Amino acid sequence: MTTVIKNGTVYQNGHLIKADVLIDGQKIKAIGTDLEGEETIDASGMIVSPGLVDVHVHYRDPGQTYKEDIKTGSQAAARGGFTTVGAMPNVTPVPNTAELMEKMVRENQKKGLVHILQYGPVTKDETTDIIPDYAELKKAGAFALSNDGHGVQSAQTMYLAMQKAKENNLIIAAHAQDDSLFNKGIVNEGIAAEKLDLPPVTELAETTQIARDLLLAQKTGVHYHICHVSTKTGVELVRLAKARGIKVTCEVAPHHILLTDSDIPEDDPYFKMNPPLRSKEDQAALLVGMLDGTIDLIATDHAPHAKAEKQGSMREAAFGITGSETAFSTLYTKFVKEEKVFTLEQLLSLLTDKPATVFGIKSAGLLAPGENADIAIFDIEHQKEIKEEDFKSKGVNTPFTGQKVYGETVMTFVDGKVVYQRGTK
């Protein structure tokens, strides 16, 4: 069966071109003009992109499936135009062993609608100082390591973990957080903490651990990746480290560039995430870091929770915001269409080829003949309201509900198969 996507604007090799894309089975057969197939999809006025790549999602499966599971998480990814994701290991049980990792990889492949890559933990259960057998985890299918949700508190433990990760050619993707400085905070130290009388989180909780880890990464030579960098100082540290030749990369989450702590209107748990929303000065530094290449990619930190966990006061509610289904449209609307901070090509690169390159994910983030037909089609001409009832995720915990945006996903292909189509259940 051959399918041709015609009349669209195609993102290929960093450029937008008018072209047709011919799909034959699981692969892209050709990209060009006047292509013909057994089935035709008219993409007039739409963007045809490589499937987006998100290296930071939480699927809560196994053990916390009332929040999300592999099926619903991957459905949400597909609706957002993502075809490859990296799932964090903060599940129950944590995949500390080869046996548990193999089981998770099997379930991801069996139940997922998109390509799901699985992280292994940096330390056993993510909160101890015991380092698992990285070689066995990698052999069982782990593509990288992370304790996301938890910073590694002991410098000695992180030093040993980096040495072992380097030996096994594994990336450590770190949630930089010194718990003693985080000190059970709720919102960023600043305007919201003062206005709402909520426990503050100092930026030092993030930045001191980034500084520590960069020195350890320099010593060990490991590829150190910083999850959801959120502070001006964090960006400055990464910029300095890159200039000194340290092998460091980092990501930014959509909510940290779309919102600041001054946007928190009241004690609303949908604005509670970790790291917290920062200041306007931090937001500006993040945008500069994205434009000058200090920040390598965008990752959503998709963190679904049950409604009951995101009600009441921020003091008791869970940290986390969903992102898979809102990332492209909110970012496109604000930063490309309205404020013109980025070009569309820059935004697509941060969501496709750059994450694939940083994490060495083959056949992801690009459109080319012979490659997997992982493709997303976006409607950038028509406005759409973000509504809870449209979500595929079990989690609806986002403050973006009710916003009117452009860039709705029309169709998503994985290995040439349609896994999401607008207007279908």
From TrEMBL:
GO BP terms, alphabetized: 'de novo' UMP biosynthetic process; purine nucleobase catabolic process
GO CC terms of this entry: cytoplasm
Keywords: Hydrolase, Metal-binding, Pyrimidine biosynthesis, Zinc
GO molecular function: allantoinase activity; dihydroorotase activity; zinc ion binding
Sequence positions that bind Zn(2+) 1: H56, H58, D148, D301
Functional pathway: Pyrimidine metabolism; UMP biosynthesis via de novo pathway; (S)-dihydroorotate from bicarbonate: step 3/3
Domain of life, source organism: Bacteria
UniProt-annotated binding residues for Zn(2+) 2: D148, H175, H228
InterPro entries: Amidohydro_3, DHOase, DHOase/Allantoinase_Hydrolase, DHOase_cat, Dihydroorotase_CS, Metal-dep_hydrolase_composite, Metal_Hydrolase
Cofactor binding summary note: Binds 2 Zn(2+) ions per subunit.
Amidohydrolase domain segment(s): 326-420
Annotated catalytic residues: D301
Domain Dihydroorotase catalytic: 46-232
Entry cofactors: Zn(2+)
Recorded catalytic activity of this chain's protein: (S)-dihydroorotate + H2O = N-carbamoyl-L-aspartate + H(+)
Binding site for substrate: H58, Y59, R60, N90, N274, H305, F319, G320
PANTHER family: ALLANTOINASE
Family per record: Belongs to the metallo-dependent hydrolases superfamily. DHOase family. Class I DHOase subfamily.
HAMAP family from the UniProt entry: PyrC_classI_B
Stated name of the protein: Dihydroorotase
Designated gene of the protein: pyrC
